[in-house]
Amino acid sequence: MRFLAILSHQLTRFTAIVILLAAGVTFIEPATFSWVKGDAQVVVLGIIMLAMGMTLGKQDYQILLRRPFDICIGTLAQFTIMPLLAILVAKSLNLSVGLTLGLVLVGSCPGGVSSNIMSYLAKGDVAFSVGMTTLSTIIAPVVTPLWLTYLVGQTVEMDGWGMFRFMVLVTLMPIAIGSICNILFHHQKWFETIRAIMPGVAVLAFACIIGGVAAVFGNQLFESALIAIVAIAIHNFCGYVLGYFSGNLIGANTAKKRTLAIEVGVQNAGLATGLSTKFFPTNAESAIVAAVSTIWHSVSGSVLANLFAWWDRYQMAKQKTDVKNPESISIGE
Q: pTM, whole model, 2 decimals?
């Protein structure tokens, strides 16, 4: 079991590579993931959310109670910056209806399930990250359908009530089950073992979803890939920047600003992919944007986290050099 826990950790570290491999395998042999559709896809999404719920214990909900202002402001920033930024990017690039729908869908989803790990690697405020991810996921069944209806409901047929019910089923219920199990059994060794394995299971589940999209929309993926990647990159990068500087609104320190950058910029694109294929099955472009976003956000978030960590190491090395060589400091200083 220790081997499985180590494997799970490595899968989490290299999420983007695993997802890319799944997509590559699908293009070679589409039947590999062609089963990930319909009810099977709902189950896979539920497994991802169950894995997230199993990481949430009493202390995480206590964070919400101890730091409600910061977490609410952060979540508000996420659910305003990313949806509005998505429609702005879509209009600026004159995207098609399908690509616009996909980008807005990604922007209207809650924070990514890997954002907590990224915040840890970035030397951010991990408790703040967990609080934002928890709150954004809890309110997403209401906020996501509302944003979609408001921003693209005039051009795309929407079933807001159906989406709400679906999100409650595949997000809140599995998270609640996982969280309750964590609270009740977190001291049990068998549960600790299962909990250690679940992040890796979630990564494989993400890979299955992406493989399923590639199996169904493989040809269209190449046709729309370039403009989709450009739109996703702009949306994601601006999310990082605006998220970071939104920290000034609450007088956040550097650690919190880094967390805000990651929490705002990294979305649960896997959920967006599931929502797209469930509620917009004839709109291939929206699913393509969501699927590509899953890969892009995983890669860019990991790169950003490592850049933040590198900057800290650079500053520490520079300070040590200045202490050892005081003559390097100019007279004016």
A: 0.80
